[in-house]
Amino acid sequence: MLHGRPCLGPQGIGALYRALEERKQRFAAEGLFAAERKRPLPFLPRAVGVATASTGAAVRDVLKVLGQRFEARRVVVRPCKVQGDGAAADIAAAIDDLNRDGTVDVI
Questions:
Q1: What pLDDT digit, counting tens, does each position of 56-87 carry?
Q2: Which residues contact 15 (CB under 8 A, 6 or more apart)?
Q3: Is 104 helix (H, G, I), strand (E, B) or coil?
Q4: Number of Cβ within a 10 Å radius of residue 13
Q5: For residues 62 and 94, what is the distance between their CA atoms, to the nearest angstrom?
Q6: What residues does 87 pair with on adjacent strands?
Q7: pTM greater than 0.70
Q8: What is the Cα–Cα distance from 70 to 18, expressed in whole angstroms?
């Protein structure tokens, strides 16, 4: 009680956590987390792929940090919609495009 009133607080498993766990189980059942699907990450990638909106603070921040930490690295930005209707499909398509591109070491 706080000031004579009951306090509200989290209780049990929240809906978002439950949805996350269900999704993780579904992806695991599809084999998406299988060790044989994973590729080793290069210690210092030669080229980095970024799937994000072409404008806004996020892309500027990513490019700034990559420029500071990996000055000589090439960065390929694949613009995509990151909010609203169709964003999930556009993000997935951007990742697919960067995968197919073959010139980036990490995305």
A1: 888 999 999 988 988 888 999 999 999 999 99
A2: none
A3: coil
A4: 9
A5: 16
A6: none
A7: no
A8: 38
- C-alpha dihedral sign at 67, 70, 73, 74: negative
Query: Are the CB atoms for 63 and 79 separated by under 8 Å?
Result: no
Helices (H) and strands (E) in the chain, counts: 3, 2
**What tokens does 12 get?**
């049990």
- Rounded to whole angstroms, the Cα distance separating 46 from 75 reads 9
* Helix (H/G/I), strand (E/B), else coil: 52: strand
| Burial status of residue 63 (CB atoms within 10 A of its CB: 0-12, 13-18, 19 or more) | middle
Q: Give the model confidence (pLDDT) of 7-57 as tens digits.
A: 666 667 788 888 999 999 999 999 988 999 888 888 888 999 999 998 888
Q: How far apart are CA 68 and CA 66, in angstroms?
A: 5
Tell me if 79 sits within 8 A of 97, measured CB to CB: no
